[in-house]
UniProtKB/TrEMBL annotation:
Species in which this protein is naturally found: Rhynochetos jubatus (kagu)
Sorted UniProt keywords: DNA-binding, Metal-binding, Nucleus, Repeat, Transcription, Transcription regulation, Zinc, Zinc-finger
Purpose of the protein: May be involved in transcriptional regulation.
Organism phylogeny: Eukaryota, Metazoa, Chordata, Craniata, Vertebrata
Name of this protein: ZN329 protein
Database matches in SMART domains: ZnF_C2H2 (SM00355)
Amino acid sequence: VQEKPYECTKCGKGFKGNSRLMKHLQTHTKQKTFECTDCGKSFSRKGNLVVHQRIHTGERPYKCKECGKTF
């Protein structure tokens, strides 16, 4: 069993590192500091904004090794 000494005081979920706990804590707040400049939708994590922006750019960075289709 993996040790997860950093525990969320809101929900009890455990994490291996403090930085992961800090990222998780954002899920409990209403704060959404990353806003899409194309449509105004906001996100609490930059990574989620980056993925969302692919809707507007049409970027498909991954390719299936079996059929070659991008997604």
